[in-house]
Amino acid sequence: MPTIRRIGASSLTTMVETVSPRVAVFITAFNEEAVIGEVIGGIDDAYDVYVIDDGSTDATADVAQRLGASVITHPINLGQGMAITTAFKLLAACAYDVIIEMDGDGQHDPKEIPVFVAAMGRTASDIIAGSRLLGSDYREAPWSRRAMLPPLSLLLRCLTRYRISDFMCGFRAFRGEALRRVAPILDDLVESEYIASEMWVKFAGAGLTATEVPVRLGARKQGRSYKGHALARYGFGILRTIVRAKLDMFRYWRA
Amino acid sequence: MGIRFIYVLVALVAVAALFLSVWLFRRNRLSTRVFMMWLVVWLAMGVFAAFPSLLDYLMRLVSMRDRLVFLFMSSIIVLFALVFYLSAVIANTSRRLDKLTQQIALLIYRLKEGENQQTGLPCRAPAGKVETGKGDE
């Protein structure tokens, strides 16, 4: 298990204490009863697991609860963006050193979580982003995503100055202290459907640092993606979100 | 069917709608703002139906000659304004509903965690204040 060194100074001596980071993993899920068990089962017992059940109509919450995860259930379906901010609201108030975000559809491999924790201990970055482009063959992704990802990533790279190849990957790690700092900015999402773009713009505005690690993109185990596949709608939605998030940050700075 | 009949029909519809609005308002089914808005619409409709010459005066003000075209144009402008207002209200209500749902989810979770503590089961979240939103206007 990777460790984080906490250094504290007293008047007489300088103490160096080595402790294991307290890690929370949150999984957003909507009607994933068939795969959520496999995802939770693959996570190391050392990590606290939270499942944000986004108003599922199947037994997703029951399965997660049976496997020992803490389950927060939206009474109605709000979309993945709102599920992520629910997790932020809860976990930003908790004393976690590292907070990992992953999807509940089985496309992210829980065995890769230690890679994020290790990267967090190794670097001073506030965010570790998973990159599907670096770690896997992205040719199996929907063509609309493959077409839109490079130009949108380029745009976000220019706007945020982050040297990241895959801004849209939902497998990320946040330093707890950094998340606590930006939680108020993330409270008011302008377009929760395209949260990834908005988050990055706001993280850059708040001065958070980020690096990336390669991750594998597994095949979806069941069901379908609830995100739009229409090229124009997806691209326009992200562009709209980027512009509004930028404007929102100006408003935030002025306040 | 003469034009006079249409004026009478419009006036009757305006009066009926006016009474319906008052009835809904008195039963708290319409907010004051919405009631006032519709009150103005129905009153204007009734007045123009009762005194069509007022329309001619307004038409001259905006340099229009056809009464029908003027009515259509003004109706479309009013309807657009109404759609814009309602879409803004819906967007705001939707945003508030999202936040309310999040707060309910977090409160239920906290209640469950409290129950777990009483039964001696481990509580995963360390003690701390859960931020449930700034609250809306």
Can you walk through the features of this model?
- The complex is a heterodimer of chains A (255) and B (137).
- By secondary structure, chain A is of the alpha/beta class.
- Chain A has 9 helices and 9 strands.
- In chain A, strand 1 and strand 2 form a beta hairpin.
- In chain A, helix 6 runs parallel beside helix 9.
- The radius of gyration of chain A is 18 Å and the shape is globular.
- The N terminus of chain A is likely disordered.
- Chain B has 137 residues and is mainly alpha-helical.
- Chain B is built from 4 helices and no strands.
- At the A-B interface, strand 5 and helix 3 of A face helix 4 of B.
Summarize the helices and strands and which ones pair or pack.
The complex is a heterodimer of chains A (255) and B (137).
Chain A: E1 4-9, E2 14-19, E3 23-29, H1 36-41, E4 48-53, H2 60-66, E5 70-73, H3 80-91, E6 98-103, H4 113-122, E7 127-131, H5 132-135, H6 143-160, E8 172-175, H7 176-186, H8 195-205, E9 210-214, H9 231-254
Helix pairs in contact in A: 3-7, 6-9, 8-9
Chain B: H1 3-26, H2 32-50, H3 53-61, H4 67-118
Helix pairs in contact in B: 1-2
Distance between the termini of chain B: 52 Å
User: How many separate helices of chain A?
Assistant: 9
Strand element count of chain A? 9
Radius of gyration of chain B: 26 Å
Helix/strand-derived category of chain B reads mainly alpha
Show the largest interface.
A-B, 24 and 19 residues
Largest sheet of chain A: 7 strands, mixed
Overall spatial form of chain B: elongated
Structural class of chain A: alpha/beta
Individual helix count of chain B:
4
Q: Give the mean pLDDT of chain A.
A: 82
Query: Which spans of chain B of ≥5 residues are poorly predicted at pLDDT below 50?
Result: 119-123, 127-137
